[in-house]
Description:
The chain is mainly alpha-helical.
Amino acid sequence: MLGDFGETLVVDWGMAKVARRGDVGSLQEDPEFLVIQQDANETVEGSIFGTPTYMSPEQARGEIATLGPPCDIYGLGAMLYCLLTGLPPYHKGTSLEVLQQVRRGKMAPPIARNSRVPQPLDAISRKAMKSLPADRYGTAVDLAEDVTRWLNDDTVSAWREPLTIRTRRWMRRHQTLVTSTAATVLMAVLTLSVLTAVVTGKNRELATLNVKERSARLLAQENEALLSREKHRLELSLESGFKLLRGIESERYGTLDDAYSDILQTGLKLPDTERAAMRPLYLALVELQTAIDQKDQVPAGMIVAAQHLRRALELLDESLEITDQVGLTWLLRAQIRQEHLGIPAIDVLADWNRAVALLPRCSAVHSGRGFCWVALEDHEAAKRDWQRAVELDAGNEFAHLGLARLAERGSDLDTAITEFQIAADLPPRFNSDPVWRLAVNIELSVAYWTRSQRRLKADNVRGSYDDMLRAAQFSQPKDILPIWKNLIIIAQILEGEDAATALTATRAARSRFRSRDEFDFARDVIVSLLESQTEIANPHGWDTLRQRRAARPAIATELNPEFFDSLRIWSQGERLKAPVREAVRGFLELPQD
């Protein structure tokens, strides 16, 4: 077997033979080898042991005393036979029938079963499987060297190659010499031809000129056909690019991915002016994507990216000089200037306005201008654009994020949480930022935290607990310490049906940031506390937590000292039953009363 790291593992030493005298008897008497099998590919009982289809003749005859390295070499030859043909050397019939075939030693050569088997490998396999041990390879190393020579395109000892094969090998190995010799011969022939042409006189010369003229005409025709094919291929490529861009501009496709499946379905006819304007626009898209890729992959990525962004703007300006009626040109220009180059929003707004005028039903244009309005502190205009973007495309994650931030700014936390949640759950379609979801989750966690505090002040303890639990689920490890502390304080206030309902929700809670054992441990501590607040009052849960913490202290790294201080104060309350109180103290490692 091969292990996970490519190492070779021997998994069965059941029929290995110790190479010392006096071991044969014990080998035969060992009951481990007396296995009765019916299939020809499985071990046979008695003194004849092994796999019949891969046995050597002496092994099939039960001559245990004579078994040695030649027997193993036969087995290697049989394995090579199976690799070459897909079948063992002997495979038809019962175990006993296969044993009889092996003893006779008559088998079909590999090349007879598979005509594509190279003759050297056929000879190597047959030599390793000779009936007489003395006729086989002397050692397994000899067999391996023959196979290696074949892999290296060299001669093998088991087969005498014909002269034609040796000649071809020599030519392959001396390719430079062969090529130079052929070139010399060719030059000699050409020189002789030229001399002959001169000697034959003017008639021959005129005939040769006619041939050259005819050849030149044919060559010109071939070049013209080649250029025509290349031009056609270029046109098809540009046509696909134009169709992709036009499809997005006309809102036929929601994203780039949506367009690819339809690229080759139908033709796209563009006026000459728009076709000319699309060419630099298409190249600008390439420059923009290159700039985005360079930011993270090149050591001086920002400098290289800025160069590509400037080139993209130059191409967009070229497109606008041809025609200013292509909305996608204005969209890309506004996006590059606002998001990548940091140009003041007041200078970018005109680009966004032009893009909206040309693409009034494009969701991405409205959401982009919404962020421009925010930079100009016109929040009402931003809200109108983002609402329109969502109406046009409910999957626009940027528009939902913008609406969430506006609602949070206006203290409308219910709307903010709803919009943040939508943005967090949507697949990224209008951006390729790898940390997009992480950033939205952080903002959602803050919104839940803020609403939890607000609800607690309004004596809505159950609602406050639910929000704090959600804040924990969407929080990063570095931000979660105060959340757990507040969560356990709120949990201590819950009782009765509220505690039971909170217990169910807490048991099902999972970190949305990533799967973390530390999160699960902190959650289980609060679960045990809530159980103690109800009729369950299970001391075994605290014992299990103590064992987990003792076995792996780092599992409690998301719980700060204030968390444990609050738990100590709670454990001293009169509401707890004595067994639970003792279990909690054991978890906290407090001295027993």
